[in-house]
Amino acid sequence: GREGWRGESRGSPQQLAERYADLAASHSEALRQREEREWHNARLRQENARLRLENRRLRRENRCLFRQALLGPGPDKPPTDPAGEAEALRTQLKRLQEKHRRALRHLRRCRAAGRPEASGAEDGELDELLLEEEEQSLDK
């Protein structure tokens, strides 16, 4: 009888040579694929590092821009016109006060009609707002 793989080999020398060649080709292909993966991973790591640096730069830029927006123009920029700024703020205040008055009138109408929009604000809050508005109109 024939022995196992450690003894006499099974198959002819030509079959063994073909099997060996197939194994060698598979091994070479596996090595090539591994090298390709390693090269691709190295490229991805480089790209990742570049993107991290870009992220840091953008975060710094965002913080800088945010600070500038909070602090206003720096010493190298001409000062803004305080009178113009005050006028713009007065105009904005008037617009907001008018919106507030219209909202209170709407709430008052809703309350009088018993509609659910008036229940969005608590009754005590609505009474307080309406009293403030009446006092302000009496002061004027």
TrEMBL record:
| Keywords per UniProt | Coiled coil
Stored InterPro entries = CCDC89-like (IPR043450)
Instruction: Give yes or no: UniProt keyword Coiled coil.
Output: yes
Where is this chain compositionally biased, Acidic residues type?
A: 120-140
Name the segments for region: Disordered.
110-140
Q: What is this protein called?
A: TUSC1 protein
Recorded source organism is: Smithornis capensis
Q: What is the lineage of its organism?
A: Eukaryota, Metazoa, Chordata, Craniata, Vertebrata
